[in-house]
């Protein structure tokens, strides 16, 4: 399997996953042209995409979904709540490209199984995904106010996990955001802080070693890549986890494709 985060952050998200036979995107939250560019830069043809799986209707996850679907005739997969909320912003989609999936379901795309799970976030019906091919798994879990047992159970066996490390709590608290927005982000249905992300990673590493964990969906205003990385590293060390021996920890880039990972 191949995994590549094309873009990750509050300014837009899109992840590429493929197997021998299937190619999908999880979210397309930037203009279609930007996703095209990113795919071409990793030598992938957008025409070959078998589907776009949408996590939720916030614009940083759906901005390019409609354009790509119309241009390359790509099916869009989302649950019924998300479809209702995003319909007016993604434009007209051909009937045969409207694919409604259940919140906790497995969708077969050629030799890939795409498993959806529930995440706590302030959108209508948000989901994370684990993509399975033979005995390999890759998971994406961003936009979550808390790291729940359900998320843990769904991603614990994945070799590659992109996990949200959205904000530094002090930067957010003392930063420029209005009070209500700060409260929303800090709430149980907001976004995961660097500290909470670190605790989640400790649990995941305790379950199995040698995972590749990619920190993603960083806030542009309330975080810094170095700070997120260092915060997680410190917590791992405090828990006796060696960053070279036990885990591979990397960052997802905001403006360009990150590492092209093959497992
Ligand atoms: Zn969101
Ligand atoms: Zn988001």
Explain what this protein looks like in three dimensions.
By secondary structure, the chain is an alpha/beta fold. It has a single domain (2-262), classed as Ribonuclease Z/Hydroxyacylglutathione hydrolase-like (Metallo-beta-lactamase, Chain A, 4-Layer Sandwich), CATH 3.60.15.10. Helices cover 31% and strands 25% of the residues. It is built from 9 helices and 14 strands. It has helices at residues 32-41, 59-62, 65-72, 80-90, 149-155, 169-174, 179-186, 194-207, 225-238; strands spanning 2-7, 14-18, 23-26, 51-53, 76-78, 98-100, 106-109, 112-118, 127-133, 136-141, 160-164, 211-216, 247-251, 261-262. A 7-stranded mixed sheet has the order 6-5-4-3-2-1-14. A 7-stranded mixed sheet has the order 7-8-9-10-11-12-13. β1 (2-7) and β2 (14-18) form a beta hairpin. α8 packs across α9. The N and C termini lie close together (5 Å). The mean pLDDT is 97. The protein binds zinc ion (2 copies). Residues 13, 58, 60-61, 143, 217 line the site of one zinc ion.
């Amino acid at each position: 399997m191949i995994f590549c985060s094309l873009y990750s952050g509050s300014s837009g998200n899109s992840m590429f996953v493929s197997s021998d036979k299937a190619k999908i995107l999880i979210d397309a939250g930037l203009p279609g042209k930007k996703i095209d560019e990113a795919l071409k830069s990793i030598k992938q043809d957008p025409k070959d995409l078998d589907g776009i799986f949408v996590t939720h209707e916030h614009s940083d996850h759906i901005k390019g979904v409609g354009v790509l679907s119309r241009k390359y005739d790509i099916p869009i997969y989302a649950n019924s709540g998300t479809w209702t909320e995003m319909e007016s912003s993604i434009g007209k989609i051909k009937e045969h490209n409207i694919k409604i999936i259940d919140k906790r379901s497995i969708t077969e795309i050629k030799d890939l199984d795409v498993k959806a799970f529930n995440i706590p976030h302030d959108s209508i019906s948000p989901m994370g995904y684990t993509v399975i091919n033979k005995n390999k798994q890759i998971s994406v879990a961003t936009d979550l106010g808390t790291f729940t047992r359900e998320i843990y159970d769904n991603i614990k066996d994945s070799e590659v996990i992109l996990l949200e490390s959205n904000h530094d709590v002090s930067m957010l608290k003392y930063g420029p955001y209005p009070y209500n927005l700060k409260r929303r982000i800090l709430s149980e249905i907001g976004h995961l802080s660097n500290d909470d992300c670190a605790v989640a990673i400790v649990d995941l590493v305790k379950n199995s070693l040698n995972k590749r964990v990619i920190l993603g969906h960083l806030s542009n205003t309330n975080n810094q890549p170095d700070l997120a990385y260092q915060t997680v590293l410190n917590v791992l060390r405090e828990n006796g986890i060696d960053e070279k021996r036990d885990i591979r920890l990397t960052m997802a880039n905001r403006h360009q494709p990150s590492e092209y990972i093959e497992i």
